[in-house]
Write a structure and sequence with these properties.
The complex is a heterotrimer of chains A (about 130), B (about 300) and C (about 120). Chain A is about 40% helix and about 30% strand. Chain A is an alpha+beta fold. Chain A has one domain: Heat Shock Protein 90 (2-Layer Sandwich), CATH 3.30.565.10. A five-stranded antiparallel beta sheet of chain A has the order 1-2-3-5-4, covered by helices on one side. Chain A is globular, with a radius of gyration of 14 Å. Chain B is α/β, with parallel strands linked by helices and about 300 residues long. In chain B, helix 3 (about 40-55) packs across helix 6 (about 110-130), helix 6 packs antiparallel against helix 7 (about 135-180) and helix 8 packs parallel to helix 9. Chain C has a single domain (about 5-120), classed as STAS domain (Transcription Regulator spoIIAA, 2-Layer Sandwich). Chain C has a five-stranded mixed beta sheet. The interface of A and C includes residues 38 and 39 of A.
Chain lengths: ~130, ~300, ~120
Amino acid sequence: MPAGKIHVAINSDQDIVLARQKGRALAAELGFSAVDATFVATAISELARNIVAYARRGEITLQAVRGSSRQGIVVVASDDGPGISDIGQALRDGFSTSGSLGLGLPGVRRLMDEFEINSRPGRGTTVTVKKWRQ
Amino acid sequence: MAKRDGSTKDSGTQKNQASELALSEAPSELLRELVAHLRQNRTQLREEWVVRISETRLLTAMTKEEIFAEATSVYDSYVEALETETFEALQAYARNLSERIIPRGVETHEVVGIVLLLRDVLARSLFAKYQTDFKKLNRILDAYEPAANRIANTVAVGFVQERERVIRQQQEAIRELSTPVLQVRERLLILPIIGVIDPQRARQLTEQLLRGIRTNRAKVIVIDITGVAAMDVTVANHLVQTVEASRLLGATVIVTGLSPEIAQTLVTIGVDLGKMNTVGDLQGGIEQAERLLGYKVMAVAEAR
Amino acid sequence: MEVPILKQGEFLIATFQADLSDADLENLRRGLVQQVVRFRSRGVIVDVTAMDVMDSFASRTLREIALMIRLRGADTVIVGIQPEVAFAMVQLGMTLEGVATALDLEEGLAYLIEKFKNID
């Protein structure tokens, strides 16, 4: 199992591409299915884009993780941006299909198996998501 | 590392800590000596091990020749892992070996058993060699034991992981078989869903259908849910997602078998069935599909 | 990264590559609209076969492109969305509502031809 964290600094839209490419590569290396690898890459893309759009700068880390009987991947998206004042609102699944206004977090949560968010206004945001190999 | 005298080995916890240290601090010279001994006596030790294997009646699914061949590879990988103190190669070998022997019906306890036997055979030979120098024996064992245990662990885990992978594959195959996507006409697929839909099966269905759309270049799909055991919000939402995803591939979905009562309930709960094309029964659905595709369905008499 | 825009009769075909930058997408949008006006095209096929990830931004951009092309009097068909990508998109709630989609280039062309056949 590949050890070590992969760090991707997120400063521009090109970094979004880099982060999701690395995410896909790691998922493939861990034996995730094509669909799951795409889900992981898409989730990373969303999270990275949030960083670029709202915080300007941040970081995405990727790491393989081992559970009791399965392997997985954990993605942490963190920034020192403005933070989210109403997390409940951000997680509410009320966006219309015309285009997700806001952070697309409900979507990210659906794409991944585990989802955790820590955010405070003025203190930045950290989103941690995991996907387990089926 | 703690000072050691010629007394017997420490108690459990101390030994574990010492073991951890030993793994990283083992004088490479000791390890080299150990590995050299194992290499020099390779033939004899391997033979001894094979004898023990048949005595304990492990690997009965394999022939003597096969056991001997695998034993040689395992022995060499074992010694190499001891020498390099890296376990990636061993892990790869373990999975490779497992891939070969699992179809033969070899079980986990057998694999764990033979690796532990080898560990013991090698340990005994170390005892024999260094019995006159107790201090040295202690230090050699300090180097050997944690590595040997790690090897046993690596091989066992590699085997189990391979087994799990095979089981998952089989489960996947079973699931696929139980949910056929049927090509009925050109560009028309039918997906009859029967039974219980848990989230995993729902995802597998959607995946299969989407692939089927691409492979068959389907333009219309009829999904029949008459046989679905329990239609609830989760299943309904999966269905809506499937319809939406199918459209992205250019296919129209007709859902059949959704009773008005259930439809009403779902709408009340808030499931958006508005985008769904629903028809009462499968036959009706197929006819509508054919109309969409531009087929003219004529009675047999007319066709003549 | 240049995105090739080909002219096929009355239609334009734009083939998106994987991992276009935001700037690329912006250039593409402008370029497509310009070409639609220049050639008085009636339809545009956007081929996203090579895109292995479509996040909400990409989806929104496609819808915007379709809208702008519509304002110039032409139709847009998105083709080549991969099964895995489609699955991920609907998880995000991105359904490209209001934009025509087809399986591939062939189907996309058939759709446009059929559409204008009925109108003329």
